[in-house]
Design a protein that fits this description.
By secondary structure, the chain is mainly β. The chain is about 5% helix and about 35% strand. The chain has a domain of about 80 residues: Beta Barrel (OB fold (Dihydrolipoamide Acetyltransferase, E2P)), CATH 2.40.50. A hairpin with a 2-residue loop joins strand 6 and strand 7.
């Protein structure tokens, strides 16, 4: 197939070969270019650590009702509480960031903060223990 293409005011006649394969049909005829085999793909964001801060975790046998778990995987931006602080249910404990969105983590129960297992800058995973209550 021959096409006329204008670039910077100049017209060029080009030959275009249309390929019929499953890949091209799935994309409406567009076949994306393949990167050179020597290209190296680098991650665009740092890898988030999966381990709790300083390797600390609550002792075995702790009542799960007195634990606040991470609802998402992300990075701790801000810790709004401290050990020994008395909180009500739904008080703000800390702020997590994931994919440039901030998520407020609130106290699941009323009580006194026994321990905080994360610090600002720590990476957390879904279900990781963040705060323990007495």
């Amino acid at each position: 197939m021959k096409l006329n293409i204008a670039v910077d005011g100049k017209t060029y006649e080009v030959d275009v070969e249309v390929q019929d394969d499953d890949h091209g049909r799935a994309l409406g005829g567009y076949i994306p270019p393949h990167p050179p085999s020597s290209s190296v793909v680098m991650p665009s964001a740092p890898v988030v650590a999966a381990a709790p801060a300083a390797g600390r975790a609550p002792a075995a046998g702790v009542d799960d009702a007195k634990i606040c778990h991470s609802p998402i995987a992300g990075i701790v931006i801000k810790v709004n509480t401290q050990i020994g602080q008395q909180l009500q249910a739904n008080d703000l404990l800390l702020v997590l960031e994931a994919m440039k969105m901030e998520t407020n983590v609130t106290a699941p129960v009323a009580g006194k903060v026994k321990d905080i297992y994360v610090r600002p800058g720590d990476g957390v995973q879904v279900g990781q223990v963040l705060v323990e209550f007495e």
